[in-house]
């Protein structure tokens, strides 16, 4: 097996299989001033890939607001960092692992969790929570049920073992994700506000170390010089396998190492392993690196420089230490039983130089690899004009209410989250099933609030407004618990950027998200773009997923998403904050009736949204209400039912006379929340709403009844038993998985 | 009194256990690395939850060979209190400091949720602050918590009052719904549920507090007695 | 000193319920393999040991199995040992 020569790479266009286009290859030749050899072409190929270079999205991502007084570290580092007051800060980031999860769901999800974990602790932050945003096709086919079950098991398998609670996230199901599931993992960590560590390779002569797992041939792309039919070759480029035990030791050792003060820079060897970590660290420092590949600990004999540079073996870190203080690191790593190897040094010549068997086998300008990577302004199609017109109302209130609660996107996700350790670290104040998760800052009366959200139906119908809603919903989730929203991270999951209509979706959704980030003062501090999400030539619905982070000072102020049973049973008033609306645009109701998203995206007004968030914080601060839950998918009907199911107490809802009942129940107009409040606090609630200029109305009550009653103009318009709603809500996912198993055995 | 929480590579509830001891008793707690060979200065030792050595081979199987577990064995013989929570329980059965074994849950999934336990013994140093038959809320978080022992062993445990806690509704298929058992001398308790996750209202239950307080009270009484006799 | 190639198998004792084996058996029946019965899932381990005699090597492997590789409370084991031909 021989690597192709530089001439062969050019003449036989081998570079194409390494991910470079003809024009990109020519650019490489120009930057190098000569033909690249195989390892160099491979390195340019991965660093100039969409995944590493953001070449299609970069020009659009610049429109995100990224600064604010709360921002300590914006995009460009391993994770973003925001100030949460009292000398503390939070580091967080979300990242997609869609493709690996489609191929091998357990390991794909597990390594996604492991990767994002390393991004957080490299910032010097102690990871304290995971959230996962998942999208699958409908559960009616065996492959999807397999993907769903295995992804959940993989998240648990890694997260539970490393001892970081999985406290939130969401799972949605839509035919658009059949064949292309989305697995977006978010990690949140806590650090002292003045303790940020960056992925920078500075200080000429400082030694560079590889720490953790040995380098194997896993995850190497484009190894095409051997026959693809060769079974051994297939074996080699197999999926990466995660080792959470090693991941945990690596985390503890790195945090200890960082605390010791000898770390100059540190970075996870994630996608494109040694290549991206070394090039990016050198790039940030504006310097160079020299790596002696013979010293990289390998798992298999006879690995080539190409294989070592492109390996995606998990649980490895690249660390630059202060020269002369290496022993501190050696002692720490030995205690954790971790392998550490001195593989090179920091230089000042701006080049990434690779040495193997005493020869220079690669020598590239760092600037060309990272900063001067190609940036594309891809053609953008004409905007899609949202449909106008009435949405058919062929489903009755009863049918729709039950169908919506039983829709897997809305239904109870206990089957998922009870497979996750949601409480390890013993700081989880509110876990999955809440509007947002709250995780206490140890030793302080302060909690971090976090949530993920992103409804592709809205974005498909109206990318700009859908983008606004994605941010608004995630941020509203925080505010609903009483927390102050601070910033967001995101994963932009889109289709093929070479199609103008997909670029239009991406560009407009980014504009919408930017609108909301500005209006809500929640800048983007980190993120990730995943393009080419398509199967059988069909692009997924545009799916920007937003991970929002905030803070609540005083955990007693928190608002749970439902009151305690005894409190509710004794009688509470139910209030609606925000506008009345009876339009069915973009609703799940519409999708259930028509089999696809219909109409425009739901109503949103960002100024109203902001006032609502401030009102919710004021309500929590004054401890006026006992519970709050935001109105989203399935409208008031779903929100009220979820609250009632959770506290196991029924109640009444009163529809305004002028509203169409069906539309009023299922409208997904934004900027709204339900609040449960004791009768003697209702006046204060109304006063607070008034000062914040947010419409507020007593919607009904919770109390001693087993039914959910809807009244309009004084008449009972509709009654359904809480038990029937509960049954639909709680049994949907277990039943879908079970009936699948039964079907298979029939 | 002074407590030790033994930290194995892969332990992840060590800090949680230490926090619970501090918050519920005000006592001093040391986190002790698995290579410790002498634990004689401690009055109580906790083997915490987690995935020691990744739970590779079998849960607790590799940790049992650590020097700290040998030291624990000596302290058990001395009558010191040893509490194994979750993975710690697995380490105790693997080291035969407690009978039986913990197998994969019968439904094959990891399960984390609040469960109801029934207190079956309220005379041990670990459970004296509970009422006999009391129902308490303590969370579980495990994939391998199905207690297994042969019928004679289970009969012995029952007859000797060594079943400390039973599940009201078994989440894992344990024989006799066993959630926690005592060693022969009554000074070793292993349980799958996590009492350290039930010590503040905001955790959803405070029923775990009394377990640590029972231990504290038992040891302090013994120390006072020893001082009086000195 | 001789080197021996050892294959160890560990599985749950017949008296212990094996949920994985049960699930696989169900799946086999689903796929039409009605004759499949008594599925038990175990572990396979491969190692080499050195010893002066085969008897000595066997003794050492048995100790490993008893003390570490299996838990006699719930598991049983079997092994095969062959001298490696250099």
TrEMBL record, chain A:
Keyword Cytoplasm belongs to the record: yes
InterPro entries xref list: PRibForGlyAmidine_synth_PurL, PurL_linker, PurM-like_C_dom, PurM-like_C_sf, PurM-like_N, PurM-like_N_sf
Domain Phosphoribosylformylglycinamidine synthase linker: 9-55
Domain spans labelled PurM-like C-terminal: 204-356, 602-710
Catalysed reaction equations from the record: N(2)-formyl-N(1)-(5-phospho-beta-D-ribosyl)glycinamide + L-glutamine + ATP + H2O = 2-formamido-N(1)-(5-O-phospho-beta-D-ribosyl)acetamidine + L-glutamate + ADP + phosphate + H(+)
Keywords from the named record: ATP-binding, Cytoplasm, Ligase, Magnesium, Metal-binding, Nucleotide-binding, Purine biosynthesis
Subcellular location(s) of the protein: Cytoplasm
Binding-site residues for Mg(2+) 2, renumbered to this chain: 119, 268
Residues binding Mg(2+) 1, per UniProt: 95, 528
EC number: 6.3.5.3
Pathway as given in its UniProt record: Purine metabolism; IMP biosynthesis via de novo pathway; 5-amino-1-(5-phospho-D-ribosyl)imidazole from N(2)-formyl-N(1)-(5-phospho-D-ribosyl)glycinamide: step 1/2
Residues covered by the PurM-like N-terminal domain: 76-190, 433-552
Annotated GO MF terms: ATP binding; magnesium ion binding; phosphoribosylformylglycinamidine synthase activity
Gene Ontology biological process: 'de novo' IMP biosynthetic process
Record: residues binding substrate: 96-99, 118, 240, 312-314, 530
GO cellular component: cytoplasm
EC class (word): ligase
Ligand binding (ATP): 54, 93, 490, 527
Location of the active site: 51, 97 (proton acceptor)
Top-rank lineage group of the source organism: Bacteria
The keyword Cytoplasm belongs to this UniProt entry's keyword annotation: yes
Quaternary structure, from the entry: Monomer. Part of the FGAM synthase complex composed of 1 PurL, 1 PurQ and 2 PurS subunits.
UniProt-listed NCBIfam families: FGAM_synth_II, PRK01213.1
Protein family membership: Belongs to the FGAMS family.
Free-text function comment from the UniProt entry: Part of the phosphoribosylformylglycinamidine synthase complex involved in the purines biosynthetic pathway. Catalyzes the ATP-dependent conversion of formylglycinamide ribonucleotide (FGAR) and glutamine to yield formylglycinamidine ribonucleotide (FGAM) and glutamate. The FGAM synthase complex is composed of three subunits. PurQ produces an ammonia molecule by converting glutamine to glutamate. PurL transfers the ammonia molecule to FGAR to form FGAM in an ATP-dependent manner.
Name assigned to this protein: Phosphoribosylformylglycinamidine synthase subunit PurL
Organism in which the protein naturally occurs: Alicyclobacillus hesperidum
Record lineage: Bacteria, Bacillati, Bacillota, Bacilli, Bacillales
Gene assigned in the entry: purL
From TrEMBL, chain B:
Organism from which the protein derives: Alicyclobacillus hesperidum
Name the UniProt record assigns to this protein: Phosphoribosylformylglycinamidine synthase subunit PurQ
Domain of life: Bacteria
GO molecular function, one term: glutaminase activity
One GO CC term, this protein: cytoplasm
NCBIfam families reported for this sequence: FGAM_synth_I, PRK03619.1
PROSITE patterns linked to this entry: GATASE_TYPE_1 (PS51273)
Protein role: Part of the phosphoribosylformylglycinamidine synthase complex involved in the purines biosynthetic pathway. Catalyzes the ATP-dependent conversion of formylglycinamide ribonucleotide (FGAR) and glutamine to yield formylglycinamidine ribonucleotide (FGAM) and glutamate. The FGAM synthase complex is composed of three subunits. PurQ produces an ammonia molecule by converting glutamine to glutamate. PurL transfers the ammonia molecule to FGAR to form FGAM in an ATP-dependent manner.
Protein's pathway: Purine metabolism; IMP biosynthesis via de novo pathway; 5-amino-1-(5-phospho-D-ribosyl)imidazole from N(2)-formyl-N(1)-(5-phospho-D-ribosyl)glycinamide: step 1/2
Pfam family, one: GATase_5
Known catalytic reactions: N(2)-formyl-N(1)-(5-phospho-beta-D-ribosyl)glycinamide + L-glutamine + ATP + H2O = 2-formamido-N(1)-(5-O-phospho-beta-D-ribosyl)acetamidine + L-glutamate + ADP + phosphate + H(+); L-glutamine + H2O = L-glutamate + NH4(+)
InterPro entries documented for this protein: Class_I_gatase-like (IPR029062), PRibForGlyAmidine_synth_PurQ (IPR010075)
Keywords per UniProt: ATP-binding, Cytoplasm, Glutamine amidotransferase, Hydrolase, Ligase, Nucleotide-binding, Purine biosynthesis
Self-association state and partner proteins as the record states: Part of the FGAM synthase complex composed of 1 PurL, 1 PurQ and 2 PurS subunits.
GO process annotations (BP): 'de novo' IMP biosynthetic process
Active site: 86, 194, 196
Localization, UniProt: Cytoplasm
HAMAP family on file: PurQ
Presence of keyword Nucleotide-binding: yes
E.C. designation(s): 6.3.5.3, 3.5.1.2
From TrEMBL, chain C:
GO molecular function: ATP binding; phosphoribosylformylglycinamidine synthase activity
Compartment annotation: Cytoplasm
Keywords: ATP-binding, Cytoplasm, Ligase, Nucleotide-binding, Purine biosynthesis
Pfam families: PurS
Family annotation (Gene3D superfamilies): Phosphoribosylformylglycinamidine synthase subunit PurS
EC code: 6.3.5.3
Catalytic activity: N(2)-formyl-N(1)-(5-phospho-beta-D-ribosyl)glycinamide + L-glutamine + ATP + H2O = 2-formamido-N(1)-(5-O-phospho-beta-D-ribosyl)acetamidine + L-glutamate + ADP + phosphate + H(+)
SUPFAM superfamilies membership: PurS-like
One Gene Ontology term, aspect cellular component: cytoplasm
GO biological process, one term: 'de novo' IMP biosynthetic process
UniProt pathway annotation: Purine metabolism; IMP biosynthesis via de novo pathway; 5-amino-1-(5-phospho-D-ribosyl)imidazole from N(2)-formyl-N(1)-(5-phospho-D-ribosyl)glycinamide: step 1/2
UniProt keyword DNA-binding, yes or no: no
HAMAP family assigned to the protein according to its UniProt record, in alphabetical order: PurS
Role noted for this protein: Part of the phosphoribosylformylglycinamidine synthase complex involved in the purines biosynthetic pathway. Catalyzes the ATP-dependent conversion of formylglycinamide ribonucleotide (FGAR) and glutamine to yield formylglycinamidine ribonucleotide (FGAM) and glutamate. The FGAM synthase complex is composed of three subunits. PurQ produces an ammonia molecule by converting glutamine to glutamate. PurL transfers the ammonia molecule to FGAR to form FGAM in an ATP-dependent manner.
Record-stated family: Belongs to the PurS family.
Subunit structure, as described in the record: Part of the FGAM synthase complex composed of 1 PurL, 1 PurQ and 2 PurS subunits.
Name of the protein described by the UniProt record: Phosphoribosylformylglycinamidine synthase subunit PurS
Species the sequence originates in: Alicyclobacillus hesperidum
Organism classification: Bacteria, Bacillati, Bacillota, Bacilli, Bacillales
Gene: purS
